[in-house]
Amino acid sequence: MTLRIDRADLGGPDAAALIGALNAELTSLYPEPGANHFGLLPADVAPGRGAFLIAYENDTAVGCGAVRLIDRATAELKRMFVQPEARGSGVGRLLVAGLEREAVRIGATRVVLETGIRQRAAIALYARCGYTPIPLYGEYNASPGTSVCLGKTLGPT
Fold it and tell me: Is the pLDDT score of 125 beyond 60?
């Protein structure tokens, strides 16, 4: 197996397929009225503001994630997803590490993220990567029943 993480175009076909699969999974996990799947704009991942990464296993897109600055020192992980058949193989950890490197590159010293309360595997992944619970922030203040927010201070690389 050859695994690589590439910076990618948010509007590309691999990105569209992965984000479509992510949205379908989130819709099935959170079917209640008012559940939101917050999006990501190309400007959020423009050079100097953030990055969108895709994980490829043997040239097949198997995962994605983004990082964007939300203030001068804080970056946010967004749109993290690994195809079910690739979960447990280290793809998620590699994506998180790649996104953290991108966060440092754009000047962040802290990374935050939101995931859902029903995504236990994602919560466990982030805990293994050093993320700890933080108060809800930003747009997630409106979803206290379904959101879990986590954060991590970035050290020197």
Answer: yes
Nearest to 115 by CA among 78, 62, 154: 78
Number of structural domains, the chain?
1
Contact in structure between 66 and 40 (CB atoms under 8 Å) = yes
Q: What is the residue-averaged pLDDT of the chain?
A: 93
Instruction: Output the pLDDT for position 99.
Output: 98
Over residues 8-31, the mean pLDDT reads 93
32: domain CATH number is 3.40.630.30
pLDDT at 35 over 80: no
- Rounded distance between C-alpha atoms, residue 125 and residue 96, angstroms: 9
User: pTM of whole model > 0.85?
Assistant: yes
146 is in which domain, residue-wise?
3-153
CA-based R_g, the chain, Å? 15
